[in-house]
Specification:
Number of domains: 2
Strand order of the largest sheet: 1-2-3-4
Order of helices and strands: HHHHHHHHHHHHHEHEEE
Structural class: mainly alpha
Domain DYW: 204-296
Number of helices: 14
Number of strands: 4
Shape: elongated
Helix content: 55-70%
Protein name: DYW domain-containing protein
Biased composition (Basic and acidic residues): 170-187
Largest sheet: 4 strands, mixed
Organism: Oryza glaberrima
GO molecular function: zinc ion binding
Strand content: 5-15%
Radius of gyration: 40 Å
């Protein structure tokens, strides 16, 4: 009886016995033919991403940032403020809100200085806006430089807003707290004015209502004199400074005769030295006398 060699051959091993279906991939299976790759599809999908690709992306971004800063320094040295500010804008678009955080303070100052040297108010405003948008907070020396250049270019309003932004706390809660503190200090100053008025009355002060030109009764004239600006300023200084601190007040108008007499007595009852500079001269009030000898 003849037996075919095909029928006499032993059966092939089961697929489950293959080492490819265990929990790891042999090196030969990874580099093998298409037949080996088909059985390990699940393991290949669950493999972690390659670290080399991430490192390459980070390295590329750092290189782009270095090239951008080199180009920014070159544009500031020319100076070409418009191109420098355009580059800042491109960096902000590519990198998002914090793209300019890597700029050193001297690089920020170079951009601002280039705008000032070119006397370009538009470029200065754009640079200020971009830095404010990208940085968590502009350094105080940079803000002072921006405000100074605003003043030189005739934009005093922008300078004031830049400095106000530097000194104002962030957030609505902080702003409300500051407003509440200012209002409390204002009320305290007005209360101090009324208190001083009673003290100097006891020391012999008599209101000179000739300096009130409104057609009102005598009591209203006395109250109007009590709230003159120099007295409010002195009261604010008294409640805001330690005892014995000299006070200095600058007034753009001439001090009236009644306030001159009142401030002499205020200096006496409070024991303070008070210096008032009006549009004519300095008045040094101390111990109930004035340096002008009442020539005022």
């Amino acid at each position: 009886m003849l037996i075919s060699p095909m029928l006499a051959a032993p059966p092939p091993p089961a697929a489950a016995a293959s080492p490819r279906c265990r929990g790891f991939l042999p090196a030969a299976a990874v580099t093998g033919s298409r037949r080996h790759r088909g059985g390990c599809r699940l393991l290949r999908r669950s493999a972690p991403p390659r670290v080399g690709a991430v490192t390459s992306t980070v390295r590329k971004r750092r290189e782009e940032g270095r090239l951008d800063r080199d180009e920014l320094r070159r544009l500031c040295q020319e100076p070409n403020p418009e191109a420098a500010v355009n580059l800042l804008d491109e960096m902000l678009v590519r990198g998002g809100a914090g793209a300019l955080a890597d700029l050193a303070p001297e690089e920020q100052a170079a951009v601002i200085q280039a705008c000032g040297e070119a006397r370009s108010l538009a470029s200065l405003r754009r640079a200020h806006r971009l830095l404010s948008k990208s940085l968590p907070g502009i350094a105080t020396p940079i803000l002072h430089m921006i405000a100074t250049l605003y003043c030189k270019l005739g934009a005093r309003g922008d300078a004031r807003r830049a400095l106000e932004g530097a000194s104002r706390p962030q957030g609505k809660d902080h702003e409300q707290e500051q407003e509440h503190g200012d209002e409390a200090k204002r009320r305290e100053a007005y209360e101090k004015v009324r208190e001083l008025h009673e003290e100097i009355r006891a020391a012999g002060y008599v209101p000179d209502t000739r300096y009130v030109l409104h057609d009102i009764d005598e009591d209203a004239k006395a109250r109007a004199l009590m709230y003159h600006s120099e007295r409010l300023a002195i009261a604010f200084g008294l409640v805001s400074t330690p005892p014995g601190t000299p006070l200095r007040v600058i007034k753009n108008l001439r001090i009236c005769g009644d306030c001159h007499n009142a401030v002499k007595l205020i200096a006496k009852v409070t024991g303070r030295e008070i210096v008032v500079r009006d549009n004519k001269r300095f008045h040094h009030f101390k111990d109930g006398a004035c340096s002008c000898g009442d020539y005022w």
